[in-house]
């Protein structure tokens, strides 16, 4: 296991670093300054100790890139990294590979039908690996005076159920203990808000690093300087303002646009993709909705409610003289009140329609998505179509709550008498009588 933390990179780390190099083949993304990079450098090289960290933010804001850059600075010394997965067995294998640890040993229990180590649960194997890792950390602390660093990338890929919470609880317990003793610093990296909520419940030494979009002034200056350096082009402020109004300060969008020959055309392409993603995932079906689509359409209708609310909020903040192009936000509790179900917002966060930051504020996932909201909600007949969807959902919900009672064999004078009462036999408030009648015509 000591080899896992020696200078150099594992195959997984080399693959991640190679991916970063491929993404920045034209020019390294250092042309966009990041205020969080210095903090992450200190965490990864071990100079900042005594805490564990959750690096959170929207997809494409540069979280993983900053971590990989920090690893490259020190050649991976004292660092292990793995990608999270919802399946315990796969997570166990990836952890073993990252720590250079095998979850088996020689035993003779099979001769007597005893269970061997492979028959234990994945959580027990992970706990055993951490026990061994702790010994390595103690030795390193005595020799170097710095903690080991374990990076768990993509924490949101863990399942948000009882099993996933048990694994996250195990990881957090170790993170709290090791942060107190300064043996190991665990860094969680996540795109979704549910991991923040889950970790904050039991956190005492957790620090959340929120990685957001680049501010308008910094983004415009960075793109202008890059175009001058790479293309020898003096881009006008008007064009740069248009670029920012279309894609905002999202790092992956800025990097793509700045390196393209026609920036405005690339911006339009990005906005079109975001708009199509919104329609593919969340378009409402109106009054012809099939009953089987009710659950999915609840989420789609919630997306449109949030879109209209964020557009209204945007109009309000644009009246401010100090408006700097920031996205409109709603407090999480107000957003939940609008959509009537907290699970709907979690689903929208999962598919990158909205995002929830570490301060429990809800906004569009990106400036391009906010533009998609504006385009979709301004379509002719949209409000009527949305209302028809609501009416159809109400109708389906009413049908689901309606029960049909069929009574047979009531020929002649036969009948039934039903009394509605409480469980204890009290409060007989309602009596329903059903009396049959003869199908034969009466005489004379």
UniProtKB/TrEMBL annotation:
Annotated ranges, domain Orc1-like AAA ATPase: 36-177
InterPro entries registered for this protein in UniProt: AAA_16, HTH_AAA, P-loop_NTPase
Location of the AAA protein C-terminal winged helix domain: 281-397
Superkingdom of this protein's organism: Eukaryota
Name recorded for this polypeptide: Orc1-like AAA ATPase domain-containing protein
Top-level taxonomy: Eukaryota, Fungi, Dikarya, Ascomycota, Pezizomycotina
